Amino acid sequence: MNFQVVITQIISLFLLIAVGYFLRRSKHLDKKETGAISKLLLDLILPAMLISSLQIEITAKMLGDFKNLFLYWIAFYLILIAAASLISSLFPISRDKKIVLKFFLIFGNVGYMGLPVIDVIFPESGIFFGSIGVVVFNIFLWTYGANLFLRGKEEKKSNLRDIFNNGVIAIIIGLVLMLTGLKLPTAVMTAVDMLAEATFPLSMLVIGSSLAQIKISGIFKDLNIIAYSTLKLLIIPAAALLILNYFNTADPIRSILVLQIAMPAAANGVIFAERYEGNYVFAAESLFFSTLMAALSIPVISYLTTYFK
């Protein structure tokens, strides 16, 4: 495996986080403005990214693999939801922090970090198979994940608009376009793609802004964050590998599933926490540490998928 791909992606993330950090520390960005960026991300830019990412050409030959991997991912997300509910309840932390940990145990950075890693290992079909994981990730993210933070607000009751949020609407549009082969007008699709490209820079600015409110050195002393990251990056992927080996799941499906499960926390957790008044500082701390730790854990998991076949 070309470990330079992993390191390059992580360095890029941290450079953007550093920009957000210094913008907040230098008073160029405050809490209100960070909240406005989060709202823009959730209401417009992330939905545009969903539609853009779902524009995948599917041939008749690919449809069978698509269905199989799609079902594998649904099964794993259901298992992750059950496991994360149990694991997060065991942590001796406040309710708002439990919600953050539960979210991060379920949702990893399967796209921005996952796809480049998979593309290196499986250059012929990696992006296609990896994109299926991104599709299922977004379905669960915008239904279960978003409502996880909404349910965390005791004074807020979920309504129909919360369930059919902009992300869910974007997924429906994207899936219809993908499965029917219909295309948006070129000018419209170009505009959607341009909005989608702003997703990760703005997400990292929000995370960096949140980190500016705490001492970064304190993150490395938080045993809860260290324990969560170990579970997320090593123990859960290793368990997934054992399950898939037990059922004799063939590559590339087996390795791609394990590698995407092994990705660090998804940046959406910080965005959701910021938008829905959750513990966004703890979310930023957890994401920061798990992304840093991924530089060591991803090569380990990659080696295990190769060694234990």
Characterization of this structure:
The protein has 15 helices and no strands. It has one domain (3-307): Na+/H+ antiporter like fold. The protein has helices spanning 3-25, 31-53, 60-90, 95-106, 114-121, 126-151, 160-163, 166-180, 186-196, 199-211, 216-219, 223-246, 253-261, 268-275, 280-307. The radius of gyration is 19 Å and the shape is globular. The two termini are 16 Å apart. The model has no long low-confidence stretch (mean pLDDT 85). Helix 5 (114-121) runs antiparallel to helix 6 (126-151). With 309 residues, the chain is mainly α. Belongs to the auxin efflux carrier (TC 2.A.69) family. This is Permease. It holds the Pfam family Mem_trans. Keywords: Cell membrane, Membrane, Transmembrane, Transmembrane helix, Transport. It comes from Halanaerobium congolense.
First-to-last CA distance: 16 Å
Which structural class matches the secondary elements?
mainly alpha
Series of H and E elements: HHHHHHHHHHHHHHH
Cα-based radius of gyration, to the nearest Å? 19 Å
CATH topology: Na+/H+ antiporter like fold
What is the level-2 CATH architecture name?
Up-down Bundle
State mean pLDDT (0 to 100 scale). 85
| Biggest sheet features | none
Fraction of residues in β-strands = under 5%
Count of beta strands: 0
Q: Write down the overall geometry.
A: globular
Which regions are unreliable across 5 or more consecutive residues at pLDDT < 50? Answer: none
- CATH class call: Mainly Alpha
Tally of helical segments: 15
Number of domains: 1
What is the helix content?
over 70%
